[in-house]
Inverse folding.
């Protein structure tokens, strides 16, 4: 049961108020958030496990390749070899994860738009909030 009480910690009260106004939430966030979520999906357990194990194996492989590159590549300073190894590992991991996701979505008979809500209402607002969050967080990292 939701109440209309304000947060007990007055430190976060301005942030909570801002979030409610920005996201047009009422006093009961648990009920209000449901309009931002996609409908529930019934994933097949073997498909989810295959996706998880594929991504995990890909991560291990990419880390191995990324760790191997600095010792194989010569003629560059150590910092550049380490960066090259990290970059190759990141690209290999992202590319292979894309492959695993594509296979998983094909097994589940879903399109990218259906799975990730690209056709849902409020997409422009979600993109704007994501960009705003990135602009705020990335410079502080």
């Amino acid at each position: 049961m939701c109440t209309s009480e304000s947060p007990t910690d007055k430190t976060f009260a301005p942030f909570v108020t801002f979030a409610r106004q920005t996201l047009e939430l009422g006093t009961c966030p648990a009920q209000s958030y449901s309009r931002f979520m996609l409908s529930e999906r019934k994933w097949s357990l073997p498909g989810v496990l295959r996706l998880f194990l594929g991504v995990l194996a890909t991560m291990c492989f990419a880390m191995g390749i990324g760790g191997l590159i600095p010792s194989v590549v010569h003629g560059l300073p150590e910092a550049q070899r380490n960066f090259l190894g990290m970059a190759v590992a990141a690209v290999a991991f992202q590319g292979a994860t894309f492959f695993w996701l594509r296979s998983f979505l094909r097994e589940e008979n879903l399109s990218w738009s259906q799975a990730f809500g690209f056709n849902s209402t409020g997409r422009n607002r979600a993109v704007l909030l994501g960009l705003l969050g990135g602009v705020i967080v990335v410079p502080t990292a």
User: Anything to note?
Assistant: The helical segments are 13-22, 29-32, 45-72, 78-107, 112-116, 123-137. The CA atoms of residues 48 and 135 lie 33 Å apart.
